[in-house]
Amino acid sequence: MLIEVCKSKIHRVKVTQAELHYVGSITIDEDLMEAANLIENEKVQIVNINNGERLETYVIKGERGSGMVCLNGPAARKVQVGDIIIIIGYGYMDFEEAKSFKPSLIFPDAHNKLP
């Protein structure tokens, strides 16, 4: 049996931009993506700490070292610049494998940089 588990998490990162007139997605600094084991076009869940919104979208690679976290398209209506969000990637794996699996969890600082 396969189950869906948390594979990656960027915990409490700050939204730096919201671009309504864009195709859609979330743009994330490539440093944060690599540290959290996320890849471009991967489906992620966004949880907004400030307003309780939850949504799903896909990842676009942002400029490395920029600290960028930008919600694009309709998702831009669900956040304000400065909001704190959690970005979660999930994966499917065998039930027994999942028991010992350790997700990639990162905790950026207030400027979306890795400590």
Describe the structure.
This protein has about 120 residues and is mostly beta strands. It has one domain (about 1-95): Beta Barrel (Barwin-like endoglucanases), CATH 2.40.40.20. Helix content is about 10%, strand content about 45%. The protein is built from two helices and eight strands. An eight-stranded mixed β-sheet has the order 2-6-3-5-4-7-1-8. A hairpin with a 5-residue loop joins β4 and β5 (about 55-60). It is globular.
Task: Briefly say what this structure is.
The protein has 115 residues and is mainly beta. It has one domain (2-95): Barwin-like endoglucanases, CATH 2.40.40.20. It contains two helices and eight strands.
Major sheet summary line: 8 strands, mixed
Q: Provide the spatial order of strands within the biggest beta sheet.
A: 2-6-3-5-4-7-1-8
CATH structural class: Mainly Beta
Write down the secondary-structure element order: EEEHEEEEHE
Count of alpha/pi helices: 2
CATH topology: Barwin-like endoglucanases
What coarse outline follows from CA principal-axis ratios? globular
The overall pLDDT, averaged over residues, is: 97
Q: What's the CATH architecture name?
A: Beta Barrel
Task: List the main descriptive attributes of the protein structure presented here.
115 residues, mainly beta, Barwin-like endoglucanases, 8-stranded mixed β-sheet, 2 helices
